[in-house]
Amino acid sequence: MDFIESVEDLEERLATPSALDCEALRRLAGDVIILGAGGKMGPSLARRIRRAADAAGLGRRIIAVSRFFSAPLANELNRNGIETITCDLLRREAVAKLPPCPNVLFLTGRKFGSTDRPDLTWATNTVIPAHVASHYRSSRIVAFSTGNVYPLVELSSGGSVETDAPAPVGEYAQACLGRERIFEHYSREYGTPCLLFRLNYAVDLRYGVLVDIARKVFAGQPIKLTGCPVKTLRAISTRTPYRKSTA
To answer: Are 77 and 46 in contact (CB under 8 A)?
Structure first.
């Protein structure tokens, strides 16, 4: 059996491109910029794209943009051949200084802390998309979203599907639908090719609902059921990710 022995081993596997990744880079024209690259998925994704471009023999710029609270992370990405830019995307003037790039991956979002600062959650999830969609109106954009925009359903139903109308529950989920609508608006206004990619709560052995539960079980601690069921239902009830092109 193939075991993952360490966080470093896990990261190496996540950052190792497949043959399909390399082929995708060959078919994709131009450089790639990743906004919100300092989060959970960003570093692994940036490395994977960098390696895929190198394996395909392409001289592409891979640019990672984040507030980069962790200087070591930015330095590590630089060593991996990834350009880094420190930027607060809430500041319109800062976004306006970002370099033009034909391919934009938008990973920015706020989830944790939404209860304490719903205003910041809404600003992050709707104002930033407005800045980005306006600045990169001539680019192709993939905007990461969430399955939380779907309604809650009974497990026996088999889960939500892409054709279900959004019915977000709570400020975070509502703000995420707001993010989608902002990108849709600017896509229609400027003709920007934009893909909304809805993901559910992920597990990569470091975080996620199943990891949270497993840690409690391993430590012999009780599992609180006050907030867990909603997250768990959403995490496992959606049958397919949502990929919607708005142009």
So the answer is: yes
